Every structure is written in structure tokens, then in C-alpha cells.
Amino acid sequence: MSAEALPLLPTTVVGSYPQPAWLVDQQALRTRMVPRVRAPEIWRIAEPLLQEAQNDATLLAIRDMERAGIDIITDGEIRRESYSNHFASALEGVDPVTPAEVIGRTGKPTLVPRVTGRVRRTRPVEVADIAFARANTDRKLKITLPGPFTMTRQAKNEFYDDEAELAMDYAIALNEEILDLKRAGVDVIQLDEPWMQAFPEEARRFAVPCINRAFQGVTGTTVVHLCFGYAAMVDQKPSGYSFLPELAGSTAEQISIEAAQPKLDLAILRELPGKTVMVGVLDLGSAEVETPEIVAGRIRQALKVLPPERIVVAPDCGMKYLPRDRAFGKLKAMADGAAMVRREI
Question: Exposure of 284 by Cβ count < 10 A (0-12 exposed, 13-18 middle, 19+ buried)?
């Protein structure tokens, strides 16, 4: 499917989709919060059969997104214990075996990998995953990776004199991975950078140059995603971003934000001139499955600020911690709501 084949107000997912209970111990996953180091104990399937089980669960996620009518899908991040640890722990210079403890963005202690040497990418990490997804769908395909700034905040730096230098090495590793992912057939590359919101002053110092280095030489659609955290982990969210207009200086074509749950004043989107915005229209903190009419109303609010050509319709954040039936229902309502608004334009 070419870019020209996308409809006006295309729909997408932010990244993750619920992992089946037969694959992942949901209670163990929630107990670990969002794991920064590897968490093999969450998998219910023994190692000899784990890859086959992950393949099957990935196909379920892909088919759910297709059935819901989503235009730009992912593999659901089914093979990952968290959105970030799968890639971050695969890099040279990172020790995920003997972790350190830091205070996380929610103020609670959390285990993170230690950076003990220069960070380098020595092998492809997500390329086989995207090749599997590409072979099993003809939809536009997106993959997410943890952003360079966020990875610096999810590790204990014991090697670099300056975190900006660490972030730049993460960016170089990301760039190598992204270029391989493009060759494997991915259409959209998204960097997840939720920690810029939590540490805005540090982000202003070096986040945007590192994002631009990660996207250097990359063709096709590029996205940066910001959020306040998974709704399952953070139920009280601010109504505005502490770091957002700064991304106007990034080379990313799209900026992804959550807007539904925090009831964001969308006027701030005017401070992102030239950017397409992935607008969150699904409140993942609510057990209610939105109706298409509710979703359509949220899209209409975004249209008061941006033209339809600069809007992509999305959930607020990843759907990893939702029950699968609720996640599917919300995606179907989102696709139907977007179709309603298209007919009005």
C-alpha cells in the first residue's frame, strides 16, 4: 500500500497491543511495572516454543488491527516485555544482567540496566520482527523504537562524562537499526520519547539533536511519540505538555501526542508548524469503549486547529495493558469515527 493509498485522516496505533494471557503472565507484568531490564519470568511459554507462540500472537494482533479497519498497523510489540527494554538491552556497553536502581518518572524505585562501556549496536534487533510482519500484511506498517533521550533516563550511566554523549551514541545505534528496518520493508518509523515530558530541562539541552541524528538519512515517514505514561500506571495526568513545541525543530515529520485522557487543549498544536500530528482520540484510562460518535467529536476538535491533511488519528498511547476485547472495540470505534468525519469533509 503506497502513501497515496492512505485515506484522509488515516488511522494508526501508537505501538503496543494486548498480549494474550496464554502468552504472558499479566499479573507478573503489572507487578514489574514497565520493565527496563529483561523480564523473562513474564512469559508463560517455555523457551523452545516461545518464538512460535510469539509468531502466533503477533498474527492475532495484526488480524485484529486489520479487522478493526486500522490503516497503519504495527506487529503489536507482542515479542517485547516492554516498549523499550528489548532494543535497549541488546546494545554493547549495556549491562542488563546486574541492574542498578534509580527513581522512575512516577517517583518509585525501578531497576534499570547499567551503562558500563561505549554504547554500540552490534547486530540487528527488530529486523526479523518487522520482516515477519511485512510477510503477513499488506497494510502500511510501522515499528516503534525507544528514543535516545528516553533510553538515557532508563539506564544508570557509569561510563560517560555527559549524558548528552550517551544519548548521541544511542542515536547512532538507532540510526543503524532504522536503516536496516527500512530495507526490511517498514513504512513508518516511530521513536518513543515519553521521558522528555518528565525531564524537560534536560530534554531541551540535547534531545532534539539526538532525535535528528537517529533519523539521519532515513526516508519515508518518521514520528516522535510523547505521552504521560501508560494509563494503567498513571491515572492522574496533566492537561498540558512541558516539552512539545521544541519538537518543531526536529526532522520528524509527525509528532504523536495523547489528548483524550488528559483533555489536552489542542491549541498547542499551532506551535508545531509544518508537522503532521498523531492526535490521541481514545482514552485508554477509561473502561468505556468509545462510540464512533465520541471519536468523531474528538477528531472535529482537532480539525478546528489543524487541516485534515496534517492529522493522523490514533489512541492516546500503547494498548499493552488493556483487555484485548476492550482494545479491539476502541480501535473499531476509532476507525468508524474517522470514517464518519471523512464523509463530512
Answer: buried
Q: Is pLDDT of 230 > 70? A: no
Q: Are 220 and 189 in contact (CB under 8 A)?
A: yes
Query: What letter would DSSP give residue 5?
Result: G
Q: CA dihedral defined by 81, 329, 57, 220, rounded to 10 degrees?
A: -70
**Rounded-to-10 torsion of CA 106, 107, 110, 112:** 80
Which residues, 6 or more positions from 170, have their beta carbon under 8 angstroms from its beta carbon? Answer: 91, 119, 148, 151, 152, 210, 214
Other CB atoms within 10 Å distance of the CB of residue 120:
13
Report the alpha-carbon distance of residue 168 to residue 303 in Å, rounded.
36
pLDDT tens per residue, range 254-288: 999 999 999 999 999 999 999 999 999 999 999 99
What is this structure's pTM? 0.94
Confidence (pLDDT) at 96: 81
